[in-house]
Amino acid sequence: EDKVVQSPLSLVVHEGDTVTLNCSYEVTNFRSLLWYKQEKKAPTFLFMLTSSGIEKKSGRLSSILDKKELFSILNITATQTGDSAIYLCAVEARSNAGKSTFGDGTTLTVKP
Amino acid sequence: NAGVTQTPKFQVLKTGQSMTLQCAQDMNHNSMYWYRQDPGMGLRLIYYSASEGTTDKGEVPNGYNVSRLNKREFSLRLESAAPSQTSVYFCASSGATGRYGYTFGSGTRLTVV
Predict the structure, then answer these.
(1) Which residues in chain B have their CB less than 8 angstroms from residue A9's CB?
(2) Cβ–Cβ of A43/B45 closer than 8 Å?
């Protein structure tokens, strides 16, 4: 059974801080790892990673995958209050017809 | 706006009542999914449809049924609601390559009393 564990479960920082969110996984026949941001409503897609060591970057957010050690990190630099959200990590296996297994999420609170 | 549309946004049911959650996407995606999200937990897959005409069980299918009516629409039915089904339900869809992950609907907050 596929499994995704995120840490920490929650995090409180101040504006301007840098944060690192962790995601470890177990999946048979790995295809991809995905990060989503969930504010008040539905999750929105951030990154999809398939290859080890290649950083994906979007503004102040970046993510990298380590397929040997089975984990990924999501970095947010110079945090803003608008970064407050639940960050979800998910994995997809090649045999799963697009199904994703999600972790429980990390709740990030950024204080002014 | 293109995307995934879910109805209703809120619903309160009495134990034993039935209801259908509707979902439609206009992005020409093949795959559609129903997830539930409980407080402090991630998303758990209820059912999915890899393509029109096919449906399969996910991690937590008990108490639910689904219908993939056509390529656009994928509905979720609760035949006899139970308090344990109180949750937020999300419909999602994804394209053939999956490069952009899922596109989610805005969710249905269901309370069973």
Answers:
(1) 40
(2) no
